[in-house]
Structures are given as structure tokens and as C-alpha cells.
Known about the structure:
alpha/beta; 15 strands; disordered N terminus
Amino acid sequence: MTIPLAACSHSSTDGASTTATPSATNGQVAMFVPTDSFTISQNVPINTWNRLVEATSDALVEHGFADDAIMTHADADLDRQSRSIETYVRDHVQRDDGRGGDGRTLVVAPAVRTAESTKYYGDYATQTLESTDGGAKTAEALNRTVAALDRAKSAGVHVVVLSTRIPGFTPDAFVSICDAEQIGRMQAQQLVNKLELDKTSRDNPKRIEIMLPFDGEASHPDDEQRFARDAFKGVWSVLGTYFRAGVVVSPSLKLSASSTEDDWRAVAFQARKSDDVVDEIKARLHTNTKGAFTPIDGVISMNDFVADGVIKGLKAMGYVGTAADVNPSITIGDVLGNIAGRRDVQRGKAPEPTQAPQIDDGDGRDASGDGEAVPVTSNRWPIVTGYGSYVSNIPNIVDGKQWMTGLADRNGNASGLAGICRALNRNGAKAALEHFNTVDGVPTMALPLIAVSAGNLKATLIDPGYISLADADL
């Protein structure tokens, strides 16, 4: 069943509906996207298809498109989507002796299958679409999609593909909103900056855990394996250098100086529910010494679903403090003041963890002469990263339990996409696309991801309208 997006469906492709009259200069845009992966809830990523369609529709109107010249469709799978595209091309392009293609752009985000653990990164993450992934039905749907889009291009219609490339088809432009490697690399770089790893020595290395969600028994193991592997590749492209130099170590010993980007399975774990994450972080940081803690400076959680479980596990184990302890100039008062617009947050140097010299004479006391008991480990709260900007996790950002999250620049992508559609419909494609990088012969727009921390929460999430103060319980 084809499902129009009620919030922004400006015309229908069902039956023999009448084609909306193109605006004098900008023509028409038809968007075909997957249905959202999540139900309405706070515990979901900000990046959903429905919200991108809303933002793109608004941006198209701002770029001069008539409201009734914008059509949107959401379909649950590639088979249904391929039939929607086929019907649209037949009814709105081919039936008018080929003239239906004048001033018209199709925007297609393939409705690929998404493994359960991959959904937690949001709807826009690039997947791999192959005819062999879902058997004969997928191959048939893919062939139907390619055939319909080829007919559309032959009739003069422009085609822009979002997020996931369509094998066997060359669009006029491709928009890469985010991919697994990009998500992993951003979190690792944020951790490098926050912990000042470039100033860290082998004598006092930082201790970092990588929590890579992966359900090896998922119904789509190949898809999930590719995503998990690429996410770890992004992390390792940044952290690998520090592991090899000995300035970063793994508290669980799952990674070492000899590890490579191919060792992603060493840190992969099943994360079907929050308790799975809690159990995993507890197992990695477990110590047999009563009252002792395994020191941990940073946790790359990969997404906010995992970050929430990591936070619960750390609390249960007795780790204390917040990111403010690692960056003393930031307090909750500073954050709230910044959000209210009263002042900017100033960041200071992250101090080295307290690791006093220990000379144990066997009774648990320092034998250096001061007679005070010296803890053998630290239970200071680590820097926790994530991705997805879940509304439910924003309070953790404010109170410092989670250092940062991230999201794709939805508004920026919507505006850029609207500009591309306008240029294509007005035969100004060359000027509009020439500043994009060309990948596999296709002009490709790829905006950087947005990193969100307590210091820039207002500028990155509240001011652009992604969330409200009430959403964040502020």
C-alpha cells in the first residue's frame, strides 16, 4: 500500500489524478521516501524521513515552488515504492506524449531494508542496496525502479537520489546525508579533542571503550555487518593512531596496539534492548577487587540508544561525576545560562585524571609515609559520546552524563536539495552542481554532520527548531 505523507502531501499519484500545473519558472517536484522507522515517541532520533520531507517541502516553497507542485509519497518497502514510482512515471510523464517531463524533478530515497540495530542511527544513514539482498522480490523491485527512472530521464525528467545509491542507475545528483563511517569518525574526533589525546603520553594513557551494537542473528545480517564494519572503520581511522602509539588503551583489552580496522567484531555486541548495553558495559569494566573500579576516560557509544544504556550501567556500578568534572569551567548553571541566551559557555583544559603514585605494603595503605589509604583505581565519570540527538537523551547532555551527540544537518540538506531541484527544473544544473564533488561520475552533495554538546545545544538544536526547551525538560 502506498502511503502519502499527510503532513506535506500536496498531490496524489493514486489512480488517474490530474497533474498539477507547473509553476511558471520552477516546475514540479515529486519525492519518494521510505516510511519512518519509528513510531511517535521521544525515544527516537531526530532524523526521520517524515521530518526531512516537511523541511524539504518548506524549502521548496521558499525557493519559489508552488505548493500544489510538490508531491510526496512514503512506502514501507522497495517493492511498494517501485510500483509508486512506476505509476507516477506512467501517469504524469509518459501519458502526455513525453511533454510531462518538462520542468520536473523526481527525488528518490530508496526504501531499503534496515536491520534493527541500524535503525537507532536514524533514517538517513546510507545503506547498501543490492539485488541479492532480498532474493527475487528485491531484484524485481530494483529492476522496476531502474526501468521507471530511466523512462523518466528519457522523457526529460531530472532525478536526484538520497542516502542510498541505486545500482544500475545514474541520477543527475546524489545527496549523501550521512553514512556509518562518517558517524564513527565524528564521535572519535570529538573524543580526541575533549580528552586532548595529542597531549597524552604513554606513561599516562587514556582508557577508551568502543561499544559497537551488532545483532549477528538479525534478519538482515549482511546489511548490518556492513554498517557495523563501516562505523568501526570510521572510529579506527581516528583512534587507531593513538592505540598504536600506546597513548590510548582498552580497559577491557578487546583492542590493542596491533588491532586493525578489520577487528570490529572484537567490540561488537548484541544490543536489542537497553539491558543488553548495561550488561555489556558492566562486563567490560568488571573488577574482582571489592570496592575498586576500572578507570575509564571515554566511551564511544555509536548512537544515543547505546549511550543511554552505558549511562545506566555506569551509574549502577558506582561511577560518579559528569563531563563537567573533565572540563571544570562548564557547570549546569553555565549550560542553562547559555540555553537561556545569557552567556556563552567557556571551555577549559581537560585535567589529567588523578593517579597518585602508589606504594602498597600489603595492607591497602600507601607506604610512602603519609598513612592515608590510596585508591587503586578511579571511579570518575568518563566522556560518553552518541549519535541521533534523541529528545529523551538531551537531559543527559545538559547534566553532563553524556558529553555529546550528533545529527545530520536536516535543514541544510533540505535547503540544498530544494536549490538543486530548482536549478534542474530551470536548466541551471551546471551552475548549481559544479561546486559539488563528483563521485562515480555523479555530482554529490555531502554536508558535514553536526556535533552537539552542552556548550552549543542552543545553537544546534533549539535555535534551528529541531527541539524545544520543553522537549529537553528545560
